[in-house]
């Protein structure tokens, strides 16, 4: 069997996937870049390439208060989701890593929210947090924490918090899953040695557990961070960005510019800026955690 | 240090409490869907359902009034199409990257990273333009292609991890016995990578089933909607019928929950090798 034949097979097997990625990711990305330089509105996308080229969209995006507001909302939304979701995921992973009866089934059930489509999670939380008939307000009234009906998703002060909750619910299983997998790869002998040396549970966590899972934790944080920043479904299906832009993340702003106002160029420019930001953050996070990746 | 006998039961009790909190939204979806409207629209909904009042009226109503079956079958066809494209191309590409180390590996790595960072609401812009020109609007193929775009790099990388764990000697032995490369891949390697194929399929099915932005933007006619788009349309209505909406949600959730519970062990294994979900 010749080396040349081997090469043909190697590239032949790779070709379909390569063509799909080139046609459906690389070329569309190039199109986004080109569209972002088309200044003006084009309700008919076939006429998009007749618009003049220029950097006007970028200039508008960078000087627009709405864009900066959405960037701020995105940061609060992402940090407000990732920090608690990571903590919950870590605690559950530590719990599920212990041995007890029924652990296998409890683990599966605990991770179920991950499989729920964002739209369905959004609808379930809209209903539970409904101002008049929602179970959350009813319970809050019962225990005396609320005297009036709180319009969680409708009121500007609570809407972002209300959107963060279902996002945490959908996102913590991923942390639990990856951290649990990482925990199971920490050698048991290290724990035994630490116990023989008389280390406290906290010392064991700091010096044995955490170094063992730090790499997986960093990677999971990057991936989930990117996921929350680009998430569209949950915010769109709960508040649609409202009330008066209180929950309008960059992702929603891009969609609104493109498909409500048909400013495809402006939307693409905001999207490209968002991508650059994501790429920088991902690069920094990967570099920071590089020594831990294997 | 001896472990106290009660320790496992304390852990079990703690887990069960966590489980109740985590699963409450599922419980509330089901409870709302099987109670009559008077109880659903009450200021103080009972936490435990009055057993005598249980009714499946909301299910009959939602199936009668909305094309829920059409939406579900659209979702199924799009998920099946996406799986067919991504698993077949991903398996071949993953195998190629696992057995032959080439420059293309770095290119695929970049493609993967790019697909992880692309917001759906951005990449939908070129898809909309491209598919409008190609006449793929109001068609399932457009949505299948859009979903495959981000899933192919993911499937490739996940499956490469599983192929790496299969010793090459197995194919070499098969080829000495007279198989060609393709037969060795098809009959020896693929069956051994079955857990990986299961994990990748489950991930991709769950993500595709959940898609809203592609299906919503590329198909505007209600008959072409998938189940997520149909459900989302309920929330825009002036008067939301919560019982019917919860019934529809429960029906739409069922296939993915069953899939997840069946394949969850493979997913844990897959996440250690791929670490790339979502």
Structure at a glance:
By secondary structure, chain A is mainly alpha-helical.
How would you characterize the overall build of this protein?
The complex is a heterodimer of chains A (294) and B (278). Chain A has 294 residues and is mostly helical. Chain A is built from 12 helices and no strands. The longest helix of chain A has 34 residues, at 3-36. Chain B has 13 helices and no strands. Chain B starts with 6 loop residues before the first helix and ends with a helix. Residues 274-278 of chain B have low confidence and may be disordered. The chains are: A mainly alpha (294), B mainly alpha (278). Chains A and B meet through helix 1, helix 3, helix 4, helix 5 and helix 6 of A and helix 1, helix 4, helix 5, helix 6 and helix 7 of B.
Give start-end ranges of low-pLDDT stretches of chain B.
274-278
| Oligomer state of the chains in this structure | heterodimer
Largest interface: A-B, 103 and 103 residues
Given the C-alpha coordinates, what overall shape of chain A results?
globular
Query: Ends of chain B: how far apart?
Result: 41 Å
Write down the Rg of chain A: 24 Å
Write the layout of secondary structure elements.
The complex is a heterodimer of chains A (294) and B (278).
Chain A: H1 3-36, H2 56-63, H3 65-96, H4 103-110, H5 118-128, H6 135-142, H7 159-183, H8 188-196, H9 201-230, H10 233-238, H11 250-259, H12 264-288
Chain B: H1 7-33, H2 37-40, H3 57-65, H4 68-99, H5 104-117, H6 120-134, H7 140-164, H8 169-176, H9 181-192, H10 194-210, H11 213-218, H12 227-235, H13 242-274
Helix pairs in contact in B: 1-13, 3-13, 4-7, 4-10, 4-12, 5-7, 7-10, 7-13, 8-9, 10-13, 12-13
Features:
heterodimer, A: 294 residues, mainly alpha, 12 helices, B: 278 residues, globular
């Amino acid at each position: 069997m010749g080396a040349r034949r081997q090469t043909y097979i190697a590239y032949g097997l790779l070709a379909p996937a390569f063509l799909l990625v080139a046609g459906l990711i690389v070329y569309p990305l190039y199109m986004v870049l080109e569209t972002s330089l088309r200044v003006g509105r084009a309700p008919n996308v076939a006429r998009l390439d007749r618009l003049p080229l220029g950097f006007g969209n970028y200039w508008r995006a960078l000087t627009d208060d709405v864009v900066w507001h959405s960037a701020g909302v995105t940061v609060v939304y992402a940090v407000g989701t990732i920090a608690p979701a990571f903590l919950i995921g870590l605690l559950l992973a530590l719990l599920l890593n212990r041995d007890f009866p029924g652990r296998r089934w409890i683990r599966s059930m605990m991770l179920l929210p991950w499989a729920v489509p964002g739209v369905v999670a959004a609808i379930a939380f809209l209903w539970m947090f409904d101002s008049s008939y929602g179970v959350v307000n009813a319970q809050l009234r019962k225990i005396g924490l609320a005297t009036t009906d709180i319009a969680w998703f409708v009121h500007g002060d609570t809407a972002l918090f209300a959107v963060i909750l279902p996002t945490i619910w959908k996102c913590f299983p991923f942390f639990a899953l990856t951290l649990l997998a990482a925990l199971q790869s920490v050698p048991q002998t290290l724990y035994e040695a630490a116990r023989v040396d008389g280390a406290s549970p906290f010392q064991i966590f700091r010096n044995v557990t955490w170094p063992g899972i730090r790499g997986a934790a960093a990677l999971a944080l990057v991936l989930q961070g990117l996921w929350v920043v680009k998430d569209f479904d949950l915010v769109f299906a709960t508040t649609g960005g409202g009330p008066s832009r209180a929950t309008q993340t960059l992702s929603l702003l891009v969609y609104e510019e493109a498909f409500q106002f048909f400013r495809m160029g402006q939307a693409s420019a905001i999207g490209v800026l968002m991508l650059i930001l994501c790429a920088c953050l991902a690069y920094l996070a990967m570099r920071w955690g590089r020594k831990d990746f294997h | 240090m001896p472990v106290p006998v009660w320790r496992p039961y304390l852990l079990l009790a703690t887990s069960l409490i966590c489980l109740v909190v985590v699963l409450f939204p599922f419980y509330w979806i089901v409870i709302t869907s099987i109670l009559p409207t008077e109880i659903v629209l009450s200021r103080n909904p009972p936490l435990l359902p009055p057993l005598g009042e249980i009714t499946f009226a909301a299910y009959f109503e939602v199936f009668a009034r909305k094309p829920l079956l059409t939406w579900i079958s659209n979702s199924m066809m799009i998920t099946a199409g996406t799986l067919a494209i991504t698993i077949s191309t991903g398996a071949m590409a993953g195998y190629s990257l696992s057995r032959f180390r080439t420059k293309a590996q770095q290119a695929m790595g970049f493609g993967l990273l790019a697909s992880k960072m692309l917001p759906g609401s951005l990449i939908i812009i070129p898809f909309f333009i491209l598919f409008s020109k190609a006449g793929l609007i109001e068609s399932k193929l457009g949505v299948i292609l859009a979903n495959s775009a981000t899933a192919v790099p993911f499937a490739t990388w996940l499956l490469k991890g599983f192929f790496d764990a299969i010793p090459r000697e197995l194919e070499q032995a098969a080829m000495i016995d007279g198989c060609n490369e393709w037969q060795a891949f098809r009959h020896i390697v693929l069956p051994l990578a079955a857990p990986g194929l299961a994990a990748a399929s489950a991930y991709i099915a769950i993500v595709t089933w959940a898609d809203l932005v592609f299906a919503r933007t590329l198909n505007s006619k209600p008959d072409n909607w998938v189940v997520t788009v149909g459900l989302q349309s309920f929330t825009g209505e002036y008067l939301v019928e919560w019982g019917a909406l919860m019934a529809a949600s429960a029906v739409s959730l069922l296939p993915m929950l069953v899939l997840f519970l069946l394949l969850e062990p493979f997913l844990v294994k897959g996440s250690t090798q791929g670490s790339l979900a979502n």
